[in-house]
Amino acid sequence: MGKDRWRVRSTNEEFDIHNAYDLGLRPLATELEFKELVKHGLMHKIVEVYVEMLSPLNVEDDDEDEDSDYIVDDEDNSLTDVQVDMDEFRHAIDFEEDELSDEEDEQLPEEVDSDVLSIQEMLQQKFQIQITSNQIFKAKMKATQKIEGDFKGQYASLRDYCDEMIRCNPGSTCKIDIEPEANSSSPTRQFRRIYICLQGLKEGWKMSGREIIGLDGCFMKGPYPGQILTAVGVDANNGIYPVAYGIVESECAASWSWFLGYLGDDLGLSTRSNFTFISDRQKGIIPALARMFPNAEHRYCVRHIHENMKLRWRGPVFRDLIWKCARAATPQEFDVAMKEVYKENKDAHAWLKEIPPRHWSRSHFSGRSKSDLLINNLCEVFNRQLVGGRDKPIITCLEYIREYLMKRLVIVKKIIAKADGPLTPTIAKRFEFTKKAASNYRVFWNGETKYQVQSIGANEDQCIVQLDKKTCSCRKWELTGIPCRHAVACIWDQRDHGLDDGVVEKWVDEAYWLETWKKVYAQTIDPINGKRLWKPNECPTTLIPPKHHIQVGRPTKKRKKAADELSQSKKAAAEELSQTIGTTGKLPRRGNSVTCQICKQKGHNKRTCSQRIHVNQADGV
User: Fold this and answer.
1) Residue ranges under compositional bias (Basic residues) (predicted)?
2) Sign of torsion over alpha carbons 366, 367, 372, 378
3) pLDDT tens digit string along 533-580?
4) Whether the Cβ atoms of residue 441 and residue 486 lie closer than 8 Å to each other
5) Most exposed of 67, 77, 166, 425 (fewest Cβ within 10 Å)?
6) 526 in helix, strand or coil?
7) Cβ-proximal residues to 334 (8 Å cutoff; 6+ apart), any chain
8) Which helix (H) or strand (E) holds 9?
């Protein structure tokens, strides 16, 4: 006969193939559609479907009608074999949520982030059927749960996950904290926090030689509340280097103290360590750092300071002034910049003066960290990569982070393999500009170790360089570990006097060398097995999700925009409006507020104006 034949076995005794057409449902139109639905087990009320393709020899005895395309029989033979002629019979189908979620499994995870409308259009195009948005939403939730896991159930497997991670990555740190339980005999414990620091990242950071860590948090988007805390360093190429991460109940002093305690143990930091942290001015992190590392240098993100300042003083003038103060490398330059702020606005000067300059201006930074960072974009960049995992169950979220880190190490290794020269690519490019600028300076040597460096044609830029101590009075060499333009001019002068070979790259700190970069990323993050191969934890209690209070209204998933971002959105809307007017010649009604012709107030027209109503009532109309 030349056509494909299928044997379909139903496991639902209530299903009657004879009455399928009389169910009052929409019949299928084509043979291809029927075949697709039989393959995927989406026939009406069929729980499981066994599909077998029959060869012409196998069906020759059963097939009495040569025009029959399909043979459908019941598994327990309670129904006689029925031959279905597609020209006369159009089988009906009803999509239940469970059955629809099975169909969507084939589209996931590619379609797992699709909205209801996209899935609805996909089903319409593939099967020519109309499914309600409510059915698709429920089916999507069930299909997503099958792929990504159960939000509540994954907490019970969290200890097993940590054991497997430590087994596959020896030396890693994984700590779980639980809520205090009054009943010690209770079989459950409520989850509170988790901290993870992988061994490969820990050892790589210790080889970087740059003692600076950015701290920040971002909120979870799932049904259970929480914050993802991250600790991110800087590598030799001025790229991000994540060190540790965790999930806590909120960004409070207690959770940050708990997180920083384990971070200090992993990085070898004590309470007396002269380390450098950078973060925003979040209320919980400031007292936590002061308590755990009282001698550390704590930098505030200047962008967040400017965001707070904009609440009272807006405009490009104040923006430029605060950044001029922050970028000042010497105390003298800082004082001059602060005087400009005072001339512009005394209240703004008094507000800015309340923030100690050691927290936000380069003029008061130490050079221990070999970094002059003013903004905490380290964590901002890392948190942006975690957006796809923040709405997942806890183990799926943690795996999303670990897999990203594992892939990132491989990507950077490929970049390192293509790099050459003594310095990393970003630093080498930056240093070329420094050397070009150094050609505009002249040097006066005192005969020992000090140099006076002066710009050609101007006497204002004049500094003292001491090569043996690797310092310059402009403080840029001290802050970054990279010779400034004044120092490069002095190194070239040494070459002219036969005191040095003039290779300025060797004066750059080892933290920026290509060899250092290779050592940092020589570490690896090893993969782990799936859940079926995890060894059960021997803890007698079971972890349960944290407390959760359902908020009123639809939960928000987008972050709150800052004031300047909102103003930019308004500008974009205004540009779109002007473009619409220029194209169509008409003013769109959307977003416009009508003006009453009687009272000249906005928000209503003359038909609903209260003044007109009063006049009409007085006239007896």
Assistant:
1) 552-561
2) negative
3) 999 999 999 999 988 755 555 556 666 666 556 566 666 666 776 676
4) yes
5) 77
6) coil
7) 325, 328, 357, 361, 363, 364
8) strand 5-10
Sheet holding 450-455, edge to edge: 441-445, 450-455, 462-466, 471-472
pLDDT at 32 (0 to 100): 54
Q: How far apart are CA 155 and CA 158, in angstroms?
A: 5
Q: How many helices (H) and strands (E) does the chain have?
A: 21, 16
pLDDT at position 565 is: 61
Place of tokens 């979220």: 397
Q: What is the pTM of this model?
A: 0.72
| Residue 34 · residue 129 · CB < 8 Å | no
Strand partners, 190: 544
* Cα angle for residues 392, 396, 400 (degrees, 5° grid): 95
Residues of the chain predicted below pLDDT 50: 1-30, 39-112, 621
Question: CA dihedral defined by 138, 143, 148, 150, rounded to 10 degrees?
Answer: 50
Is the Cβ–Cβ distance between 521 and 415 less than 8 Å? no
Task: Locate 428 and state its tokens.
Answer: 């080498």
Query: Any long-range contacts for 258-261 (C-beta under 8 Å, 24+ apart)?
Result: 258/177, 258/193, 258/195, 259/193, 259/195, 259/229, 259/231, 260/215, 260/288, 260/289, 260/292, 260/293, 261/292
* Amino acid in the structure at residue 82: V
342 burial class (0-12, 13-18, 19+ CB within 10 angstroms)?
A: middle
* Cα–Cα distance measured from residue 616 to residue 262, given in angstroms and rounded to the nearest whole number: 77
Contact 159, 176 (CB under 8 A): yes
Token pair of 239, please? 């790229």
Tell me which H or E stretch contains 317: helix 316-327
